[in-house]
Amino acid sequence: MRGLVGNNIYKNFVSLSAGEIVRKIISFFTLVYLARVISPEGFGILGFAIAIVYFFGLVVNFGIDTIATRDLSRDRTLIPKYVNNILTFRLLLSIGSFFLLSIFILLIDKTPTYKIVILLTGLSLLFNATILNFVFLAIEKMKYVAIRQISTSILSLIAIMVFVNTEADLIIASAIFSISLIVNSFLLLFLYRKKYFAINLSLDRIFLKNIIRESYPLLVSSIMISVYYNIDLIMLGFMRTPEEVGIYNAAYKIFMIAILPFGLLFKAFTPTLAKYSGNDRAITFSVFKYYALIILAFGVLAFLILFIFSEQLVILIFGIEYIRAAVPLLLLALNALVISINMSIGQPLTLWGYQKTYSIAISIGAIANIILNFIFIPEYGYLGAAFATMLTEVVVFVGLLFIFIRNMKNLF
């Protein structure tokens, strides 16, 4: 049994890693090209827009993916019901979210270029609803997700290199990113219809009420996680210059590449952790230990690479024009180590029925992050933002460790 479980996890991880790593490599070249062409100022405007739109996109996702993956990994006959209702619900949310984003754009005190870039980036909200990753994760067909990621990334890179050649092409770049996501979502939707089931939009109120009740703590958690992952870029955008946002955005992109394996590992382990959590505690504990050790190993590796080679990485990836990003990257390297610990003990809680307590720890961290950003950003700019992010992760660690110790003795 354990051999079969390990084999499934390995296949899931390889499939997800292949798609995500290749996509990240392609995105890496896309970002390198963009950063060098549109300058730190343009790169800062684009990063600010993506951070803003990401917040509005959280409402569309509503934290349902984890719950749906858990449920469908246990009973695949529920797939049509889940897809039809979740798709309908998210379409309604996406329309409302884009409307609110449009109002936000009208109210903020920014240049026309800022507003156009945010609006074009925000068009992706209308198509976030059709992304059906949770289905393919649940049935452990990660290869379809991988193929979709790779193909759309290649198209995006080609379009960027053909149509974006100067700083004046910033608006074109933001439009290409949205079009890429639109193509991305439709490919997976087409694959689902062709290989599995037809789509019939429906709203089962009882079903939606139940899944919303379970998923809203994860929505809160996602919003709070987004706060301390993205609020620094947004606050920098309002408090400091676009160039400073671009410098911090460069450091942050390198940091996000380094912690990429953490999310991949959790997704690969999700079906197994969810499947055995209520059936066999011995297998669950064994899988958990395996998961935690691998996450921590990747955390140490990410920390060492970022800390030792910060300057070399910045110059190699973004060029000497972004050399100031090396210092915030040192702080983010420490953050990568703490994040690996938090993901090892925190993410499994969302699969074992502790979503609410998990969301409390994340919420405390988000509030702390906002306060810390207000303290450090006005005085220290992007260095203050990086320091606030690191301290926030420590606050979250304290909360998650308390919850883990308190509840895991009952589970195991």
Task: Put the structure in a nutshell.
This protein is mostly helical.
Helix content: over 70%
Our estimate of the beta-strand percent is: under 5%
Number of separate domains: 1
**Number of DSSP helical runs:** 16
Poorly predicted regions? 1-6
What class would the helix/strand composition place it in? mainly alpha
What does the largest sheet look like? none
Shape, per Cα inertia axes: globular
How many E-type strands? Answer: 0
Distance between the termini: 19 Å
Task: Name a few traits of the molecule.
85% helix; 412 residues; mainly alpha; disordered N terminus
Description:
The chain has 412 residues and is mainly α. The protein has one domain. It is 85% helix and 0% strand. The protein has helices spanning 2-61, 64-74, 79-107, 112-122, 125-128, 133-138, 142-163, 170-195, 205-239, 242-258, 260-276, 281-308, 310-318, 326-346, 355-380, 382-411. It is globular and about 55 Å long. The protein starts with a helix and ends with a helix. Mean pLDDT is 81; it is low at 1-6.
Helix-strand blueprint:
Layout: H1 2-61, H2 64-74, H3 79-107, H4 112-122, H5 125-128, H6 133-138, H7 142-163, H8 170-195, H9 205-239, H10 242-258, H11 260-276, H12 281-308, H13 310-318, H14 326-346, H15 355-380, H16 382-411
Helix pairs in contact: 1-3, 1-4, 1-7, 1-9, 1-10, 1-11, 2-9, 2-11, 3-4, 4-8, 7-8, 9-15, 9-16, 10-14, 10-16, 11-12, 12-14, 13-14, 14-16, 15-16
